Amino acid sequence: MDSVIKKLPGISLAAIIAVPAWVLGQQFPVIGSPVLGILFGMLLAFWKRPPAFQSGVTYTSKKLLQYSIILLGFDMNLFQIFQAGSQTLLLMAFTLTATFLGAYLVGKALKVDRDTNILVGVGTAICGGSAIAATAPVIGAKDEDVARSISTIFLFNVIAAFLFPFLGHTMQMSDFHFGLWAGTAINDTSSVVAAGYTFSDAAGNLAVIVKLTRTLMIIPVTLVLAFYTAKRQSRTGSANYSFAKIFPWFVVGFVASAVINTFLPLPAGMGKSLASFGKFVIVMAMAAIGLNTNLIDLVKHGWRPVVLGFSCWAILAVTSLAVQYGLPGSLF
Q1: Which of 50, 176, 205, 291 is the most buried if burial means most Cβ atoms within 10 Å?
Q2: Which DSSP letter does residue 28 get?
Q3: Whole-angstrom Cα distance, residue 219 to residue 257?
Q4: For the segment 155-179, what is each residue's pLDDT rounded down to a tens digit?
């Protein structure tokens, strides 16, 4: 109980910052609440807050972030996702592989630090902020790395929301092909929705389902990263090495909540309400991360992640188009 009371000031501060970020994010979905939360937090980081806040701020940015991922699973219908996934599995295999390989090679060439490289790659390949939120605790990323990665992903989300419909019409894409392209090549759900439904309702419906299918890729990717981190720590002889601590148990919770939402008769609207609360907790976590981030240092060292993010985004978008139009028509 003493531990909980000690954390309350910091948790409350993160929640207070998250409220206006959440409200404004609903009004401007292309920007999104998580980005506003991290931005408001970074602005308040200049305030020299009392030490009593730090414990709760750290707890929110680490533990509450993990719990929020579990709640997101309550908005998943596995039957619908698997149906779309069976049609697009090959496409995702190509796009994910190309993006991760591109992130590794470009990041190495630019000398981007390992954690930022992984977070930008995962955020681009899978689902933006949610993937970064799920991956950060697994690899032990610092708050600065998360802030840098979220900022980079946000930049290309906004560009994609406006650019993709124009390019789709210019290339005379069908609703089906544009839905696949938007669902696989745009990072954040809000931008997928914006771009998909700007093109057409049919394209938007498909793009959202494909995007949700991509979200499930959080599961294998975080598990692989957990094994990688465990192996790396054991090789370096880390005194804090413990696979049980590294293993992303919250991903198991994410799967369990998706299974519950799919197979159990929950009260109407309950699954979406729990998922919405999870998204609000993510905004709280982003605000807490912002509070622990030096904005000046972020801007000073921010160009390399932006170049990396652009490279990953371009590789993802081109690969999706190449697979759709390059493979036999019977597949797509």
Answers
A1: 291
A2: S
A3: 13
A4: 887 788 889 999 999 999 999 899 9
